[in-house]
Amino acid sequence: MTQSKIRPRARRILVVRNDKLGDFMLAWPALACLKQAQPDNHIGVLVPSYTAPLAHACPWVDEVILDPGPQADRTAQRQLLARMREGGFDALLTLFSTPRIGWLGWRAGIARRMAPATKWAQVFYNHRIMQRRSRSRKPEYQYNLELAEALLEQLGQTRPESLAPPYWPLPATARDIQRNRLAEELALDNSRPWVFLHAGNGGSAANLAPAQYAALAATIDRQASSDRRPFWLLTAGPGEEAVTQRLRTTLHEQGVDAALVPRCQNLEDFALSLIAADLFIAGSTGPLHIAGCLNIPTAGFYPAKRSSTPLRWQTCNAAERRLAFCPPSGADSETDMSRIDLSAAAYAIHELLAQQG
Fold it and tell me: For the residues 322-344, what does the mean pLDDT come to?
């Protein structure tokens, strides 16, 4: 057998992305890369309890380890260290580096430890990649992919030839199941386009005000033909229900058909419900990036400051299925979402929705 036909041996890899939901969803392309390069690779993830339901749902993940967080007591930190040691991992890939995680990886005896070359946390890693993410010259998920590809090279494995959306592939029947469920619960017309709108921001980047979202939806509604008027399904995160309820009332007053998506049992159920959407609209939030992983058409609203630009936090759906809007560049205006041209945004969203048939 020639050397080129010998498959590199499978490895046990622990990937760390232990911050917010959107950040974790933008790690899915990197997870897909590691798993598709060698299907026998064992991919573990270290995540907080909040994102754990989606980590368990991720098709590229074999093991989920909960991070109790930096504020946890010494007992919890020792338990985490013991779990990392017991995992027998060949490599640690930290997508967002902190000294605590670097120290734990070193103490756990993981021989190959890779992370961005960021501040002093890098002293705990023996493989570091210079990225300068603060310059925001690439999408976050591409920075993550670069790290995954660098690790594969270190492990003697080859990057998969075909790596493309959706990064959360679901059975073809999943969309019909979710649409039929919502149609029954909310008495919806399944033949009309459904636009999901998430007006909250979960304390994340600046977002449109509810009044702006109402104006946007009303403008899109007026542009549609009578038989293609969208039905608006409003989603809400924890503590955002009252704002969403007021938005629905405002839309009804303007003659726009809208309803609240029923409360889901857990985060995974909420995420799966998004596959019913013909288009998803939100600020730069976790739900927007769930939709991106599902390759649903998206329209995202972003501030213009360098750390939060549409380029840096681009969704990972196909290019032709995503739109992004932000205020014009200029001093003291990067986070002024009122400067976004909603008429132009409404027209572009209407056109993208029309393309979905």
Answer: 88
pLDDT in tens, 161-218: 889 999 999 998 999 999 999 999 999 999 999 999 999 876 667 899 999 999 999 9
pLDDT over 70 at 4, yes or no = no
Cross-strand partners of 169: none
Statement: 173-355 belongs to CATH 3.40.50.2000: yes
- Dihedral sign from CA coordinates of 10, 11, 12, 15: negative
How far is 98 from 118, CA to CA, in rounded Å?
9
Tokens of 320: 């032709």
Phi-psi region of 295 (alpha: psi -120 to 50; beta: other; left: phi over 0): left
- Superfamily of domain 3-154 in CATH is Glycogen Phosphorylase B; (3.40.50.2000)
Position 3 pLDDT exceeds 80: no
* Kind of pairing between the strands at 322-325 and 42-47: unpaired
Contact 53, 266 (CB under 8 A): yes
pLDDT at 118: 75
Domains 3-154 and 173-355 share a fold: yes
- 299 pairs with which residues across the strands? 281, 323
Q: Give 227 or 282, the one with higher predicted confidence.
A: 282
Through-space distance between the first and last CA atoms of the chain, rounded to whole angstroms: 51
Torsion angles phi and psi, residue 34, rounded to 5: -65, -40
Q: Report how far residue 19's alpha carbon sits from residue 62's, in angstroms, rounded to the nearest whole number.
A: 20
At residue 2 the predicted structure's pLDDT band, cuts being 50, 70 and 90, is very low
Q: CA of 337: how far to CAs of 29, 275, 301, 305, in Å?
A: 29, 28, 8, 11
User: Who wins on pLDDT, 96 or 112?
Assistant: 112
Q: Provide the pLDDT for residue 5.
A: 54
Burial of 141 (0-12, 13-18, 19+ CB in 10 A): buried
The domain spans of the chain are: 3-154, 173-355
Distance CA 225, CA 104 (A): 58
